Amino acid sequence: MADGREQFLRTVRQALGRDQAATPPPKSGEADGESSIRDRASEIQREAEDNADALMSRLHEAATEAGWNVTRVASPAEAADHILRVVQDLEARSIVRSAHDVLDALALDEGMARAGVSMTLAAIGDMATEGQRQEQRASIRESCISADVGLTGVDHAIAETGSVVLLPRRGVSRLVSLLPPVHVAVVRRGQVLPGLDELFALQRLDHIEGDLGSYLNIITGPSRSADIEHTLVTGVHGPGEVHMVLLG
Amino acid sequence: MRPDTKNFKRGAAKALGNERIQANLLGLYNGFDRARLAAADGTPDWELMREQARAIKAHTIDNLDYYLELAASNVEKAGGTVFFAKDADAAAGYVTDLALARGVKLVIKGKSMVSEEMSLNERLTDAGIEPVETDLGEYIIQLAGETPYHIIAPAIHKSREEVTDLFEAKLNSPRYEEITELAAEARRQLRDKFIRADMGITGANFIVAETGTVALVTNEGNGRMCTSMPRIHVAITGMEKIIPSMDDLGIFLRLLIRSATGQRISSYVTTVTGPRHADDEDGPDEFHLVIVDNGRSRLLADPELRESLYCIRCGACLNACPVYRKVGGHAYGWVYPGPIGAIVTPVMTNLADAKDLPFASSLCGACREACPVKINIPRMLLHLRKEVTEGRKYPTERNRSVLEALAMRLWRLSLSSPAALSIANSVARVLQKPLLRKGRIRWLPPPLSGWTPSRTFPAFVRPFRQRWRG
Fold it and tell me: Considering only alpha carbons, which residue of chain B is nearest residue A164?
């Protein structure tokens, strides 16, 4: 189909009262050069480390308000115990998990096996050929469709809004935090950003480094709707129950 | 959606006479509007943010050609495809042809008001493709064969009993009494569609020009489903949704979400930049962005109306408007109801048909107060009223009759001096006699008849000065 791009842009230009494309003086942060984007990003990362404790407390409060079940634990062993308890309370039979490092460190396999819960790693093997990738992709999808619980780490958390942020990574399917009725997210100390602006500043760094992912998901509490009579219900399409484990 | 803007008064009367709809509309005020005020109070620098957002929008719209090209080139760099559609027909044609070319049988849709402009569901159905709305409100509306009542809460006029009836009739489901049960039924029904769909269609709340990123705000998770599950993702957007930089996204997300529902943030904010990368675990193989004009360039070309394109579609002006809250969403007759709809609908469709819409306001200014980007809606309503009567800019759509023009001239003449006023008053006191009932005029002949169907007119009496002098 013929793309009416030129005609479209000409119409816009005419509406604006000019016949030539004009380059406007930048208005907002778009003027920032690469070095200022880099400086800002490293400042944000430093502050996330320096203020890790205070940010963790603020996240705890905001996330609770947003409908997460929040638990703060001191060690990976405690985190593993807590997750196992959540899974048992739910009487879950199957868990699907992402390949985030923080989950590897929890060594959940043995505990889950003892509790009779099957845990599937939703990740494509590093050495997979294209044909194998297709097959594995289909099987990840099936696991996410049937699992009772989805377990992930996070890339960031946001204190302002009580959110976790998931970015595309090797071993992280978008579906683990979406399809199962329950999502458990593990947030490490140092991952908490103060607000949305800091998150998007880091995205800009990814952009100038050519690392901007194909998506970003900011997740805040359970799936909700108030479309019928303004009455809040949870778990409409995404998870209806969400747990946040704060580690450290 | 075919415009049906000629029947504002009839639609308004219908909503006013329906007690249940009045009760549901009150919920908008008690729910959304108060939540917005509380959220604004709880946001540091809210007023400053509004100013900044307005300035960013003004700059972007004044340089829209530049930002459109920038956004398009960055979407393409990220591996996506961009289509510029001059009108609804071209946009619907592109999406339908793409679906046919890719062998798509089932399409899942997130809430998109632009797709309503395009009557996209009808077009897809005609082509033998099944479109399924997945936002709970839109799903209800689609089952009922209706159009959205509100841009944020499309089914807000329906009671739970009506939804129960609808689900029983269309889905053969049991007679659920609880809203949680109705939502769970929708989840079950739609889960299967998400799994089987070949194409996901969403709107776009913002397009970030510097990265070619589309931002989507949802609460249910259907937006994430539409962008994650099918092999093709198509985002459809009006050309005004562009912001320059990622740096601007934080401000606009806060303003949009807090003005729309009063939440600090929605359950999900998803940004999409192109299709999935080769080493991503999953995601769509193809990403298409359809940028739609469909009459927006007419708003852009009129300096008096240009700021209507700053709108971020939060719905706050609907919830704040004492007229919308009484006459409801269907009376406006097209996709965008309420105060902002009363401006964009007449220009995007046809002013002569939609001539009542700019008058559906008391000009109280609540919309302007509520607007997160401070759009001066009352000023533009007045401008359009002037266009309706004088028709300088849209002469073919001039709407004032010769008789009305004559009446207005006589009116002006009678007010031009105390003597003229006194004479006019004496004449009126004689002429009104056959019309008087209990000291009020209850009916006026054409062309003045528009005054009296829903209210009475006070009688002309002897001026106070004359009575006082005895």
Answer: B268
